[in-house]
Design goal:
The chain has helices at residues 4-15, 28-40, 53-67, 75-91, and strands at 21-24, 48-51, 97-100, 107-110. By secondary structure, the protein is α+β, with helices and mostly antiparallel strands. It has one domain (4-110).
């Protein structure tokens, strides 16, 4: 029996055989697995590409960033920036800490 996702993707292939189709996935490995299953259990995956939300956003934003000479920071740089912001907020006494009690659904605030 075919997977429901594969059946839906086959319907999409039938309707839009020659159009580009972007499959948004949580990560590229998951996307590759879906495309492998699609190729084994259908007509193939012509004009399909996989993308994560992040990779699609980067692809869409790239021309504007290039025009304005804006560079995207690396993930390690973003960690340093976030750390600096939290340090500054902590030193200013502006952080509110959340402490979970009994279950993740109930919490109370501690200054």
């Amino acid at each position: 029996m075919k997977n429901c996702l594969i059946l839906k993707l086959n319907q999409l292939i039938d309707k839009h055989r020659f159009n580009e189709k972007i499959l948004i996935v949580p990560d590229h490995n998951t996307g590759n697995q879906i495309l492998q299953d699609l190729s084994k259990n259908s007509l193939g995956w012509i004009n399909f590409k996989t993308a994560t939300v992040g990779s699609l956003a980067s692809e869409i934003a790239a021309p504007e960033l290039l025009i304005n000479k804006i560079e995207k920071i690396s993930s390690i740089e973003s960690i340093f920036i976030i750390d600096a912001i939290f340090t500054e907020l902590a030193e200013a006494g502006s952080l509110i800490r959340v402490h979970l009690i009994d279950s993740p659904r109930r919490s109370h605030l501690i200054n």
